[in-house]
Predict the structure of Putrescine oxidase.
Amino acid sequence: MSEPNRTELTRDVVIVGAGAAGLTAANELRRAGLSVAVLEARDRVGGRLWTDVIDGAMLEIGGQWVSPDQDALIDTVAELGLETYSRYREGDSVYVGPDGTTHRFTGEMFPVAPETERVIAEITERLDAMVAEIDPDRPWAHEKAEEWDRISWDAWLRAQTDDDEAVRNLAFATGSAMLTKPTHTFSLLQSLLMAASAGSYSNLVDADFILDKRVVGGLQQVPLLLAERLGDDVHLGRPVRTLEWSGDGVTAIADGMTVRARFAILALAPVLYNRISFVPALPRLQHQMHQHLSMGFVIKVHAVYDTPFWREKGLSGTAFSPYELSHEAYDNTNHGDARGTLVGFVSDQHADDVFRLSAQERKDRILESLSHYYGPEAKEPVVYYESDWGSEEWTRGAYAASFDLGGLHRYGAQLREAVGPVHFACSDMAGAGYQHVDGAIRMGRLAASQIVDEARA
């Protein structure tokens, strides 16, 4: 017997999650003539893409950048009629060394001792050669995958050199900056996958490549416009509590709504699967795999100033140091905005540590770190905001999920494997575009194409 006021729907496909992956899949399926219902727990679409106005400033609280190799995202942005603009990068970059000295520089190589520079160049070349052998869609298939998954990223680097400054700078490109976990907690193989997803290790450490362009008005417009096309097929505030599945199809039971369908796509971070009761339970291997995946943690710090004062000093805004609380920061000024915005990042254990402080002390510590790059003016923003995805009920970390030591080789091949009528799509399981919106779009397309093929079989 139905509950009063419970909406009952029947569709070809029910999609759980209205982020870029789920909305891409829904649009692809509709285009193929299949009916869909998208159930989203939040009161908005976009998932880890979120543009909001905070104290009068438009801030991209979640993902925001577009890289030149992200074809799926670039094509989607163009198809939706959105415009992009380049990140400001004119002038000197800044590097803070182990002794706390601030160095200005231009070009790709930051100012370190000649021997350290040589070591970084040699290991980077070695990593690029290793990455070139990795298929980002099948990293576990490499002949050395098991060996590379047994050793931590930090341990492997320290086996290559005893130059601590070289190790710290090589390590944080995939550690603090991308996987947002301490570098002793994930494997060399996981790090190689992160680099392979961007085309090479060199690409990954090149800020001008990875952080190339932004979308005018914010990247959340991508899911907003995709959702607009779906109209009433997108249902907000509908967390799915139970998913019943069999060879005959699925029943998704959400707050106030039940959807019966032939197929389901779980388009949410895999760390959230345990919020859903599966009837029957998912296979043992799936349960085990999901226990070896966890989110990283990063605070994205937005500091808005009356003017982009660093530009007057001849600075590009690009700054980094493995010795600073904010390990990297960039000019994040919005298109056409007279005010200046800096974005900084505090990740992994550093993020844990500052959240043990009061809000005021945390702000003071972070702005102090930014001032080491840009000068004392950085301590006086007119708007200050911290994106804390770790406390988001329907995200629980950032930027994405990655495996613990040994997990990628052990379980990676099952990550995208459908379970009966239940398919999976998320940036966390992408090859190319892993952890990025580009990867989410690719995974949404892949899941949709698999279902179209099955529906026509």
